[in-house]
Design brief:
The complex is a heterotrimer of chains A (261), B (322) and C (687). Chain A is α/β, with parallel strands linked by helices and 261 residues long. Chain A is built from eight helices and 13 strands. Classes of the chains: A alpha/beta (261), B alpha/beta (322), C mainly alpha (687). The interface between A and B is large, with 79 and 85 residues.
């Protein structure tokens, strides 16, 4: 099975304490560390396991700047066979639909049976997979936490409310977005990344893949993030004081407001 | 006046809570907006839900089709594209079905898309301004989208105040005939229910989480009573699991489960970062601890210096008396 | 006929010369033994290299003390003393056995130099040796067969019980002792009947007893017995020789080599591949031990040398708390695999991935690298390097538990396992009260003689930051000119290398080394034994490293620091030896001396202390790993302290403190017991 996994470089929520810059409108990016989006990492592991079982190859693709190559290498160190970096100044500022348009252009050039994305990203909207599927008229399933391969089709489990699993049968080719917990991604250390350091990763721009620069990037974006802000949380806990009775009355009010009752 | 379509999900003949939240959300988009509810499904359940919704909405569109007996996002998408005006503003709940449906819907309607919105700040010309949370809730962002060709927006359930006691006296319009061809390459098979008895703390919106302050296995009952009163689930920190008082699956922390509740009641938990590392999504954290210097008070939203063994039963009683 | 006919001249049925048999037996025996040994050496030849010909002085010392002197044996008194008797007996009797083989075809053969007084003295000694060996064997057989000490038991998952083999071998040894003594006694009895001449024999020795018993036996019986026992001995001897390499008694042959080649330097970790420099690591195809042949030849020799005594597992804290790890079976399972893959005849089998085939992932992650097993092993068998090599193999294959992936990734990105920001590394010094009184130099900007290396847990854990402040106050008050690296400091990587993430460790080491070299300090002080160990034993070319307890002890001796009388004289203190201070670095007395310098402080010693200290549960990355276990090591340790009558556990390691504080709560001893860091106790008592 030929599998394509779309990955993304994101600020790492586990290794960062997010603060705003001095203007208070963007993240203080000086000390941020980035890594591959956690959900995407599960998707790549799943792709590798499928290929281990039924054969084929895994290609990882990302839209981003030069630094995004780092996440492609990390995923290739895991075992993905090929990487593709879609990079162009005209891609900058794309909204979800723009990213999906760029990816679609490249995907159409290949011959993939299965296209995977992470179900979401900590700074994203969980949109690209569904959009690619709709643009290409392929069937789609989101939040997939189980995949069984079959002949010309796959059976997927979707994680739905209440911890239940919704089983579906989907015809190939198709697009799925992968939920965390579907597997246990293997560890990739510095050594693994160095091993694939010299593997060539093709870089493609708008003209290479035949995308109208006006339809993507800032120019084509209908949805824009205009600023960041921190909802006022205060410093440390607000301490409730007084008699136990008073505290409980105040607490119940708070809990009602926050959806705890 | 803005016309908004609210897609409503339901289960077992009952509309999900978000149905009551859309009107508040719509008001924040445009004070004078009219909202039309859209429900899809099949048979008696659909009719009941559509009927119920007339209390909240002046107009309810229903689409009845056997292929939609179980909500298949691809089928529903096709129906909606045929039924809704191409420049419609469509609200969809940001739940597991909404995430399946909405991105593709925005493509097929050729409209703009915004996801997981927690607040709206109105329309300026053709630009709708919204608020969403990013990076595990660490920061919020303002997002705008151009609605001139329509928009699909997913709304975080619980983010908007539900309307109560509405009596819109609305009517149901049956547009089943306009649904068009609903063939799908995705076939629903079955729902595999989560194992019974195996409490999944990651799925609960409210957690009553206990730590060493519980002191003894017998006291866990006290926490369970509180959880029951709050409609919550009991989770815990590592020492409780180590002591084998609760199962490993109940442990919150870097070495346990990662949870994303709305409200986290940290009862007698000191708040090591190994523990706090398992709490994501910026929940409202209430900390009760007899040690005023417990680090949990640095990270909690609300702090109470009390012995949980005295405090919890009183709180349970107070909640039950509500 | 005047004297008994020896086996060299005896003819079976008056025709067939026995000498032929006693000539052929050794040839077959030695030939077979040579073949067996060649098969056994085959895997060692295919194994990875190991540099064991350095530090010859230390190796000879080990040979004299550990092998010849058997100094580790009496740590288990009864078994140890029995072993010393059997071992000494074997050494003495090896000479007799050699000459006996030759006597088979050369009557009255005496080894050169053993004809005169030396021979008499030797005979006297060897008679007692045989006697004591027999007695020791009988007691040992009773212990193993009837009393069955717990440490010999084989849990079901590890296979069948080994008692039968042990008792069988004790039987062979007894046969050797009895036949040798009967052989001699029958001759002497015969001679006495003939000549009335009484040989002096060691009184009450086996020979002496047999001679008394045989005094009036008919001469033809004595003659028959003489030849019969000779061949029994000869057969038993060569059978034993060829049987040794088949099981746990291989150590009889390999122990001398294994002890000679055992670890001399402590605290360090073997290189990924001997002969490959750190710079050459990138060129290696594979890391660590994945298949059997990836072990070094010394590690394979370890597997052969294990006597299955179970002392390692008896001391192993992971085994004690029911984790799926027993060091004894790490060895036994590998030895059985060698025996299976390298059979006595036929094809050599290809080895599979060890973790999956004979080991489990949890088994290999369960080790805290405390070193209790290695400290105990009378044969010098190593475990830590093997665990690290197996982990290196797993890391290389991506087989790392999710709970460990998070901190490893954080170490890669942020230089600490918690994923905290680099710039917050020195935030412990910003504590209001502390900051008002003390200013900590940042060696990125300022200069000082001494670097205080804080390390991650002390820098970032809210509860442990107190150690950093107390250490600083102690250094300040004892007149040490010091500073810290601040955000330039990275995790020391002590556990990173021990958890098999070699390249990440190399990265951390390079960053720290560069930062330390740039700041130009003359010495390094730390309060974290894990950092101490890494900087001292794993890093190279740094200024001398001291643990804070060494600094304090030294300052007290010099009179530069004086301590107040005990603030809490009613409490009973005990000192818990951190593994990386004690066992791995031999610092046992400095912290004790410092504690004892506090007037009126009552200190009790734990039963398991010093080199037998019981690990708290492990530090560094071990805090993130969630093993299956029945109880926690810390809880057992806290109970040990309680039994010793202590109510304050003083330790000198931030990880021990975390684990002990947790364990006190889990054990339900809050209020009764407390854990205290060395720096806190000393700082409170500074004049």
């Amino acid at each position: 099975m030929e599998i394509l996994v779309c990955v993304k470089r994101v600020p790492d929520t586990a290794e960062n304490e997010f603060e705003l810059n001095s203007d208070g409108n963007d993240l203080d990016r000086d000390d941020l560390v980035y890594s591959v989006n956690e959900w995407d990492n599960y998707a790549v592991e799943e792709a590798i396991q499928i290929v281990d079982n039924v054969g084929g190859s895994v290609t990882v693709i990302t839209v981003g700047d030069d630094e995004s190559e780092e996440v492609l290498r990390r995923e290739m160190a895991m075992g993905a066979n090929n990487g593709i970096l879609l990079t162009d100044d005209d891609f900058e500022g794309s909204d979800g639909k723009g990213i999906a348009t760029i990816l679609k252009a490249e995907i159409e050039k290949g011959n993939y049976d299965l296209i995977m994305t992470g179900a979401q990203a900590d700074e994203g909207a969980g949109q690209v997979g569904g959009m690619i599927a709709a643009m290409m008229d392929l069937p789609y399933a989101s939040l997939v936490n189980k995949i069984e391969t079959g002949d010309g089709k796959i059976t997927v489990g979707r994680e739905i409310e209440g911890g239940n699993q919704e089983m579906n049968e989907i015809e190939l080719p198709c697009v799925v977005s992968i939920q965390t917990g579907i597997n246990e991604p293997r560890y990739v250390g510095i050594r693994g990344i160095r091993k694939v350091a010299s593997v060539e990763i093709p870089e493609k721009g708008a003209s290479d893949i035949g995308v109208d620069a006006a339809a993507v990037g800032e120019a084509g974006a209908k949805t824009k993030r205009i600023d960041y802000f921190v909802p006022d949380l205060g410093d440390g806990a607000e301490m409730l004081e007084g008699s136990t009775e008073e505290i409980i009355t105040a607490l119940i009010e708070k809990l009602k407001a926050k959806g705890g009752l | 006046m803005t016309q908004i379509y609210a897609y409503i999900t339901f289960a077992n003949g009952v509309a999900e809570d978000v149905a009551l939240e859309y009107p508040s959300a719509a008001k924040k988009i445009d004070e004078g907006a009219t909202v039309t509810a859209v429900v899809t499904g099949s048979g008696a359940d659909l009719d009941k839900v559509a009927g119920d919704l007339t209390a909240t909405y002046a107009e309810v569109i229903k689409v009845d089709n056997a292929d939609m007996a179980y909500p298949n996002a691809e089928v529903v998408r096709k129906a909606l594209v045929n039924i809704l005006p191409s420049d419609a503003i469509v609200l969809v709940p940001h739940n597991t079905f909404g995430m399946d449906l909405a991105p593709g819907l925005s493509v097929k309607m050729d409209s703009s898309y915004a996801a997981d919105i927690v607040d709206f700040e109105g329309i300026d010309g053709t630009v709708l301004k919204m608020v969403r949370q990013e990076l595990g809730g660490a920061v919020s962002t303002h997002v705008t989208t151009d609605i001139s060709a329509g928009a699909v927006v997913t709304v975080r359930p619980g983010a908007f105040a539900p309307v109560e006691g509405a009596a819109a006296g609305g009517s149901v319009t049956d547009k089943s005939g306009d649904a068009g061809d609903l063939a799908s390459k995705r076939k629903f098979l079955e729902v595999v229910e989560a194992e019974v008895g195996d409490v999944d703390i990651t799925k609960s919106d409210v957690l009553v989480s206990i730590g060493r302050g519980i002191e003894d296995e017998d006291n866990i009952e006290v926490a369970e009573e509180l959880a029951e009163a709050m409609g919550a689930v009991v989770s815990c920190s590592r020492p409780i699991v180590d002591a084998k008082w609760l199962e490993k699956s109940r442990q919150v922390g870097t070495s346990g489960q990662t949870v994303k509740p709305k409200v986290y009641m940290a009862m007698g938990i000191s708040g090591s970062f190994q523990h706090m590392g398992g709490i994501k999504g910026n929940p409202y954290i209430v900390a009760v601890n007899k040690n005023p210097k417990a680090p949990i008070f640095q990270v909690a939203d609300l702090g109470i210096v009390e012995d949980i063994l005295d405090f919890m039963p009183e709180l349970t009683e107070a909640i039950n008396d509500l | 006929m005047t004297s008994i006919i020896g086996p060299a001249s005896f003819k079976f049925f008056g025709v067939f010369p026995a000498a032929i048999l006693s000539f052929i037996l050794p040839i077959i025996g030695i030939g077979l033994f040579t073949y067996i040994m060649a098969r056994r050496i085959a895997p060692l030849v295919r194994a990875n290299p190991d540099n064991r010909f350095d530090q010859i002085g230390g190796r000879i010392k080990n040979l004299i003390l550990v092998w010849l002197g058997q100094i580790r044996q009496p740590r288990y008194m009864l078994a140890g003393v029995l072993h010393i008797f059997i071992f000494a007996g074997f050494l003495i009797l090896s000479i007799r056995s050699t000459s006996l083989v030759i006597i088979g075809f050369k009557d009255g053969f005496v080894l050169p130099g053993f004809s005169g007084v030396i021979g008499d003295v030797y005979n006297f000694l060897k008679d007692y040796a045989a006697t004591f060996v027999l007695i020791a064997c009988i007691i040992a057989a009773i212990r193993r067969g009837i009393m069955k000490p717990k440490r010999y038991a084989v849990p079901e998952k590890y296979g069948k019980d080994h008692t039968a083999e042990a008792v069988f071998v004790l039987g062979i040894i007894s046969t050797l002792m009895i036949s040798e003594s009967l052989f001699e006694a029958s001759e002497l009895a015969y001679e006495f009947q003939h000549t009335g001449q009484e040989h002096f024999l060691a009184p009450l020795s086996l020979v002496w007893i047999f001679k008394v018993l045989l005094a009036s036996a008919p001469q033809n019986i004595l003659q028959g017995l003489h030849v019969f026992t000779y061949f029994v001995h000869d057969l038993a001897f060569f059978f034993f020789l060829c049987f040794l390499p088949m099981g746990k008694h291989f150590h009889v042959i390999t122990s001398i080599f294994n002890v000679f080649f055992m670890r001399v330097k402590k605290g360090n970790i073997k290189p990924v591949m001997h002969g490959v420099s750190d710079e050459g690591l990138d060129d290696l195809e594979s890391f660590g031990v994945k298949k059997l042949e990836d072990f070094t030849w010394k590690h394979m020799l370890d597997f052969y040398s294990c006597a299955d005594c179970g002392r390692c597992s008896d001391q192993c804290p992971a085994n004690a708390v029911g984790r799926p790890l027993s060091p004894r079976f790490i060895t036994i399972k590998a030895r059985d695999l060698i025996f299976k893959n390298y059979p006595m005849s036929g094809e050599i089998y290809k080895s599979k991935m060890l973790v999956e085939d004979i080991y489990t992932e949890d088994e290999i992650w369960s080790c805290t690298t405390c070193g209790a097993c290695e400290e105990e092993c009378p044969l010098g068998i190593e475990y830590i390097d093997k665990m690290v090599d197996l982990r290196r193999g797993m890391v290389d294959e991506g087989m790392v538990p999710q709970s460990l992936q998070k901190p490893l990734k954080a170490l890669e990105k942020r230089g600490n396992p918690y994923g905290k920001m680099e710039k917050k590394r020195a935030d412990w010094a910003k504590d209001k009260e502390f900051k008002a009184n003390y200013e900590i130099k940042d060696l990125a900007k300022d200069e000082a003689d001494t670097l205080y290396f804080v390390d991650s847990i002390t820098s970032y854990d809210d509860n442990i930051q107190e150690i950093a402040r107390r250490t600083s106050i102690i250094l300040e008050k004892s007149g040490v000119d010091f500073g810290i690296l601040g955000k330039l400091e990275k995790d020391s990587g002590n556990e990173v290398i021990r958890f098999g993430e070699e390249m990440l460790y190399q990265d951390l080491k390079e960053q720290n080394t560069a930062a330390i070299e740039d700041c130009g300090v003359k010495q390094i002080v730390t309060a974290d034994p894990h950092a101490y160990n890494a900087l001292k034993n794993d890093y190279k070319g740094l200024p001398p490293v001291k643990h804070i307890s060494q600094v304090v002890a030294e300052k007290i001796t010099k009179g530069e620091v004086t301590l107040k009388s005990c603030l809490d004289p009613d409490k009973v203190y005990c000192y818990h030896d951190p593994c990386y201070l004690g066992r791995h670095n031999g610092i046992y007395d400095d912290p004790r001396n410092a504690l004892d310098a506090i007037n009126g402080l009552t200190r009790v010693e734990l039963e398991k202390s010093r080199d037998r200290s019981f690990c708290c549960g492990g530090g560094g990355l071990m805090l993130f790993y969630e093993p299956e276990e029945e109880t926690r090591m810390g809880v057992l340790r806290v109970n040990m302290a309680a039994e010793a009558g202590a109510n304050v556990i003083v330790t000198a390691c931030p990880f021990c403190l975390v684990n002990m504080q947790d364990a006190i709560k889990v054990a339900g001893k809050e209020g009764e017991m407390e854990a205290l860091d060395f720096t806190e106790l000393i700082e409170q008592h500074l004049e």
